[in-house]
Design a protein that fits this description.
Number of helices: 19
Structural class: mainly alpha
Number of domains: 1
Largest sheet: 2 strands, antiparallel
CATH topology: Amino acid/polyamine transporter I
Radius of gyration: 22 Å
Helix content: 55-70%
Number of strands: 2
CATH architecture: Up-down Bundle
CATH superfamily: Amino acid/polyamine transporter I
CATH class: Mainly Alpha
Strand content: under 5%
Strand order of the largest sheet: 1-2
Length: 506
């Protein structure tokens, strides 16, 4: 079960022979990280967290951020030591074998593709709110919400997914340049929000702090974890990074630190100005976010609560007397959220690229466009699936399902760091996780805690997805694995030829 291990030396050699172009530096990596992290989580899921935990979502941000921080330290060591595409998939292949690596890669599909769909739905909410408040028109809900959320299909979410797909096909460097501009807009908007809301905070809005108890705070932490997801996508760009041994840790930890500061300030601004108490149904039962029951309850109070808003930050500013600034923040979200979709889809295509290069997925997935030098086939396929996710599912459900895959991958990387410290202690580590025998177990335990705090339906869906992955592995991937068949990659100039066989070593 754990026998097929691809050595780190083989992984690095393969990357050198059939590699992507190295164009990204430390600044671009940090901006890619911030671009991937700051997005739907804080712009949209603030309302979801408020419905689950009330003002206690402040503590939810702390819990989720702490788990992410210890996982980031483990990621940084692996990313600097193994500077190739593939993220947790590649690290698991080197340490725990092919089956575990396959399951991690399979889980990462939940993380990246479904997360991109969630962000597209979040973007749609801001876009429709912007249009309705700017031009005083009413957009039919049937075409801007999925069937679970009171509509039929989310057409704006599908459209933005298509635009991002085209941009990614055109090239990584172009994508990163556009992203850096969008990140600057995003940070400016959040800074303006904080500057206007913090001076008018009222302490009474923080009471009761935990209306649904610690269970609600844990549930909100499991959902709001999505607000931090994305920093690990930076590690999937390792193969396209100049001086990765130095730049990868800077990009990972730097982006996480910047985002954490913003999250705490923005959450305090929302709670302290307009309040963040959950909406209750009959029998004083808190309603689940993203359900028809909550939609009906919100309609009864004319959506006069932050938990009802699809554009929480813009709504908050309008409520406290800054309609024009609310309009600006809405515009910034419309411009900036696509950067998160871009980074999620970027990470997804690169993981597919590496799995295909290892023989676990069809080889045409790893075809690189002759002009744009990007894996165009899998980029287009990923774009189609992201558009479908965004069209039919609400943001909260997509975020929770994405989190289940992410937490599995984070735990796998944390285990890999510990195993590698034992089995390959002498290998050069440009970045070493401090107190690794404390940090990594905390990371593993934290991921498990957040996973069991997700809804039962989300955990069941994850188990079902894992079982499908096992069937695909044993029906297709196991027999075609390059490692299992004793194949090695050829040089890039010979990439049109099939891989050659390695004679067994006596």
């Amino acid at each position: 079960m754990f026998g097929r291990v691809k050595s780190l030396d083989a992984i690095l050699a393969t990357a050198e022979k059939k590699s992507l172009h190295r164009t990204l530096g430390a600044f671009q990596l940090t901006m890619l990280g911030v671009g991937a992290v700051i997005g739907t989580g804080i712009f949209v899921l603030t309302a979801e967290a408020a419905q689950k935990a009330g003002p206690g979502m402040m503590l939810s941000f702390v819990i989720a951020g702490f788990v992410c921080a210890v996982a980031a330290l483990c990621y940084a060591e692996m990313a600097a030591m193994v500077p190739v595409s593939g993220s947790a998939y590649t690290y698991s292949y080197a340490v725990m074998g092919e089956l575990v690596a396959w399951m991690v890669g399979w889980a990462l599909i939940l993380e990246y593709a479904i997360a991109a769909g969630a962000v597209a739905v979040g973007w749609s909410g801001y876009m429709i709110g912007f249009v309705q408040n700017s031009f005083h028109v009413t957009v039919p809900l049937e075409f801007v919400r999925g069937p679970f959320d009171g509509g039929l299909i989310n057409l704006p979410a599908m459209a933005i997914a298509a635009v991002i797909t085209v941009l990614l096909v055109l090239g990584t460097k172009e994508s990163a340049t556009v992203n850096a501009i969008l990140v600057a807009i995003k940070i400016a908007a959040l800074s303006l929000f904080v500057a206007l809301t913090l001076p008018v905070i009222r302490s009474g809005h923080f009471v009761p702090f935990a209306p649904l108890g610690f269970t609600g705070i844990s549930g909100a932490a499991a959902s709001i974890f999505f607000a931090y997801v994305g920093f690990d996508a930076v590690s999937t760009a390792a193969e396209e990074t100049t001086n990765p041994q130095r730049n990868m840790p800077i990009g990972l930890i730097g982006s996480l630190a910047i985002c954490t500061v913003f999250y705490m300030l923005v959450a305090a601004g929302v709670i302290g100005t307009v309040g963040a108490q959950p909406v209750f149904g009959p029998g004083h039962v808190a309603l689940d976010p993203g359900t028809p029951a909550l939609s009906h309850a919100c309609s009864a109070i004319h959506d006069n609560a932050v938990v009802c808003s699809k554009e929480a930050l813009a709504w908050t500013l309008r409520q406290v007397g800054y309609p024009f600034v609310g309009w600006l923040v809405g515009a910034a979200a419309i411009l900036a959220l696509p950067s998160v979709i871009l980074m999620m889809m970027f990470g997804q295509t690169r993981i597919f690229f590496v799995m295909s290069r290892d023989g676990l997925l069809p080889e045409f997935f790893s075809k690189v466009h002759p002009k744009f030098h990007t894996p165009h086939v899998i980029t287009v396929l990923t774009g189609i699936f992201v558009a479908l996710f965004a069209a039919f599912f609400p943001v909260g459900l997509l975020a929770d399902v994405s989190n289940s895959g992410t937490l599995f991958a984070f735990a796998a990387v944390s285990i890999a760091v510990l195993v590698l410290r034992r089995t390959d202690a002498g290998r050069r580590r440009p970045f070493r996780t401090p107190a690794v025998w404390v940090i990594a177990p905390i990371s593993i335990a934290g991921c498990l805690y957040l996973f069991v705090s997700l809804s039962a339906a989300t955990m069941e869906l994850f188990v079902g997805w894992a079982l499908v992955g096992l069937v695909v592995y044993y029906a297709y991937s196991r027999s075609r694995s390059h490692v299992g068949r004793g194949l090695f990659e050829v040089h890039e100039e010979d990439s049109d030829l099939p891989p050659s066989s390695v004679p067994p070593i006596e």
